[in-house]
Write a structure and sequence with these properties.
The complex is a heterodimer.
Chain A (H helix, E strand, L loop, with lengths): L8 E5 L4 E6 L7 E8 L6 E6 L4 E2 L4 E4 L5 E6 L8 E9 L15 E6 L1
Parallel strand pairs in A: 1-9
Antiparallel strand pairs in A: 2-7, 3-4, 3-8, 5-6, 6-7, 8-9
Chain B lengths: L3 E4 L2 E4 L5 E7 L4 E9 L6 E7 L5 E2 L8 E7 L2 E6 L8 E9 L10 E2 L3 E5 L1
Parallel strand pairs in B: 2-11
Antiparallel strand pairs in B: 1-3, 3-8, 4-5, 4-9, 5-6, 7-8, 9-10, 9-11
Classes of the chains: A mainly beta, B mainly beta.
């Protein structure tokens, strides 16, 4: 699986949009971009994933550049409860049934402040 | 949404004791389960991958005789830390993924972890 690069930390004011970047310049054509977050002392929480089109769900939006070498996770209205470590992970699609493991990097520690 | 339940959430025991951690998928059948370990201020490290009904695949450096994994059913996997010592103290997290569907990519869902402290 391709490696990802994320800034170690970011701050965001409550109510503002939080834009978390991720670089995955060596991504392959069959690899998806996944985003998870881990709130302190809890297990990781799935947020969103995508292949090449932008995706949106109730939690966030995922913007993937046309060349797929980078992506941005957007939390449109950050709250204090969004304070967490956010992980961007690239992984091969699972259609073949092969167990492709999630490998966690160091992530971005997002601090939402008043 | 999909839920993974992990039990116990917290355990303290004496050195030399064996500890069993359970991981259940509550509303889906998990053909594959993963066990991770996380030390303070570090990222999650994958320990092993298990598929229902077969032996677990361990990551390099993880002792299979130390960390026994059983995945006997599609909804339950257990991790047993045998003869635990203080250096085994860590946050253990399980994860489960549903049956692969040809049309839908299945995300991996995580339990809330078990904090293990060995005295």
């Amino acid at each position: 699986d391709a490696k990802t690069t994320q800034p170690p930390s970011m701050d965001c004011a409550e109510g503002r949009a939080a834009n978390l970047p991720c670089n995955h310049s060596t991504i392959s054509g069959n690899e998806y971009v996944y985003w998870y977050r881990q709130i302190h002392s809890q297990g990781p929480q799935y947020i969103i994933h995508g292949l090449k089109n932008n995706e949106t769900n109730e939690m966030a939006s995922l913007i993937i550049t046309e060349d797929r070498k980078s992506s941005t996770l957007i939390l449109p209205h950050a709250t204090l409860r969004d304070t967490a470590v956010y992980y961007c992970i690239v992984r091969v699609a699972l259609r073949t049934g092969t167990a492709s493991k999630l490998t966690f990097g160091t992530g971005t520690r997002l601090q939402v402040t008043l | 949404g999909a839920v993974v339940s992990q039990h116990p959430s917290w355990v303290i025991c004496k050195s030399g004791t064996s500890v069993k951690i359970e991981c259940r998928s509550l509303d889906f059948q998990a053909t594959t389960m993963f066990w991770y370990r996380q030390f303070p201020k570090q990222s999650l490290m994958l320990m092993a991958t298990s598929n229902e009904g077969s032996k677990a695949t361990y990551e390099q450096g993880v002792e299979k005789d130390k960390f026994l994994i059983n995945h006997a059913s599609l909804t339950l996997s257990t991790l047993t830390v045998t003869s635990a010592h203080p250096e085994d103290s860590s946050f253990y997290i399980c994860s489960a993924r549903g049956t692969v569907n040809a049309l839908v990519i299945q995300p991996q869902h995580f339990g809330d972890g078990t904090r293990l402290s060995i005295l």
